[in-house]
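Example record used in the benchmark description.
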Amino acid sequence: MTEPTPVEKAEAAVREAQTDTVAVQLALAAVELAKAATAQQQASQQKVCQHQPKAGRSTGEWLAIGCAVCVGSIGIAFASIALAILGGVAAIIALVLRDMWRDMQKGR
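Model output (structure tokens):
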């Protein structure tokens, strides 16, 4: 094989430089695309989550809730006792009225 001439060496160097330039440009374009995608994801995450998380309840609030539950349960207990008494009274009245009805029917 023969040694390449300086002109052939120069042409090969130009071809290699052109190829390298295209590869470098493609790599830079890929990096820019990745940067743009990352920025878009961050922007969309910021748009989605713009609220501040609510702080937990304080001790006073928990005490107030507990007191309200206790008072409410006592009220329900009294109401159920009242309904039981009312049911008993209604049963007694029904029995007395039935007995009176029977007595009235026998007297005829």
